[in-house]
Amino acid sequence: MDRPSGLGRCRLGAWGTGIVVFLAFASRTEGQAVPVPVPTDTAAAVSGPAEADSTTVAAAVPQRDLLDVLRSWLFGRRVEPQLEGTLPSGISWTILPTFSYNPVYGFALGASLAGGGTLGKGPQARPAALVVSANYSTTGQLQAQFKGDVFTPAGGYLVKADIRYLDTNRSTWGLGPIGPDQQEYPMDFRLARFYGTLYRRTSGSVYVGMGYHYDDYMDIVDERAAQGETTPFTLYSGSALTRTRASGASLNLLGDTRDDIINPSRGYYLSGTFRNYLEWLGSDSNWQEFWIDVRMYPHLPTRSPNVLAFWLYSWMTFGSPPYLGLPAVGWDTYGRGGRGYLQGRIRSENQIYLECEYRAQLTRDGLLGAVFFLNLTASTEPVSGVFSRPDRGGGLGLRIKFNKRSRTNLVIDRAWGEEGSGGWFLGTTEAF
């Protein structure tokens, strides 16, 4: 069973980077929170008059963050030391050291280079977000990644990129929903990933695009299989494979009217992707996956700053995908799904995920907030392929405004799941 033991079951990693950086450097988080908010007038136009009124009410009260508190208590002025610069393109870059802890990696030290801004200045200009980060842990694990969402100056095209390299150890627990008899199976592997998608705007905030996606799992070691046991990985794969590759093309649909990416308060997000992995492109087998991601942010009550956020995604596969490429909690694009469970704790050929979170502002100046959330993960049984009962998760959390300019919060969540799963989830961006 997946039982937390003190901080030993906290999933921190990149989630905890911003908090530790604050404690060590008291630095501004525009670097961590790469995307910049859409101007208020644009957001109000998208969201309608009711939500625009809630923004007006909140703006009537001077907003505060932790840096304002430090100014009042310690420094007498707002201190925001960091290494940053702005290029003629309009993108501001920030370099920050990172220090994190995760039960998978141990303690990790690294750095991040983050950029945010807009390439254009007209009414159609959209925010760009880029981040390059790397760290090395006390257990000898290496992580490096680049993620970017860049719109052209007129907003007519969008380029999305996700490039990663992992040299890591991740456990699996077999396929299907959580059960009392499931066991943990540690696995070592290296992952090289390249995802790139080019979108073209068709109408308003709707984009269509084509992409290429490549995952190469190398030097796979199923530790228990190496000791002579039969494991879920060997049963599914037919043998103790040491390498699997998936290479394919995609068709994509995107609609996004959110006013912010790190802390949305209105609008919607809709993404649909069909990926076709083909042997002639270098894939080990022909298979497909279909992904739908929907997020909405209505206010409750309507004219209040409180948000009732919804997240629904459906992740389906067809054919014979590699075991490590199957749908699994925590392996969504941004690694935010399944609070209450370790990454990869629930894995199956198909998954449907639903999460609802109520985000309440506790103080009118925006310094403190709280959240309550519930999630359901429905997975298919490995033999019948039928969806079983969903695995439940939920929890509550505290929000402390870290930087009012980028609307970044310090996120402190306590979550629980089935069969003793649970732990602390810390970070600087909302789950969705």
- How many distinct helices? 6
CATH hierarchy: architecture: Beta Barrel
Report the sheet-strand fraction.
Answer: over 45%
Unreliable stretches: 1-52
Radius of gyration: 22 Å
Average pLDDT, all residues? 80
CATH hierarchy class name:
Mainly Beta
Provide the fold topology.
Elements: H1 17-25, H2 40-47, H3 49-60, H4 66-75, E1 83-86, E2 91-102, E3 106-118, E4 127-137, E5 142-151, E6 157-172, E7 185-203, E8 206-222, H5 223-226, H6 232-237, E9 244-256, E10 268-277, E11 287-296, E12 307-319, E13 350-361, E14 368-379, E15 391-403, E16 408-417, E17 422-427
Antiparallel strand pairs: 1-2, 2-3, 3-4, 4-5, 5-6, 6-7, 7-8, 8-9, 9-10, 10-11, 11-12, 12-13, 13-14, 14-15, 15-16, 16-17
Structure in words:
The protein is mostly beta strands and 432 residues long. The chain has 6 helices and 17 strands. The protein has helices at residues 17-25, 40-47, 49-60, 66-75, 223-226, 232-237, and strands at residues 83-86, 91-102, 106-118, 127-137, 142-151, 157-172, 185-203, 206-222, 244-256, 268-277, 287-296, 307-319, 350-361, 368-379, 391-403, 408-417, 422-427. It has a 17-stranded antiparallel sheet. 39% of the residues are buried. Residues 1-52 have low confidence and may be disordered.
In short:
It contains 6 helices and 17 strands.
Name the descriptors.
432 residues, mainly beta, Porin, 17-stranded antiparallel beta sheet, 11% helix, 47% strand, globular, disordered N terminus
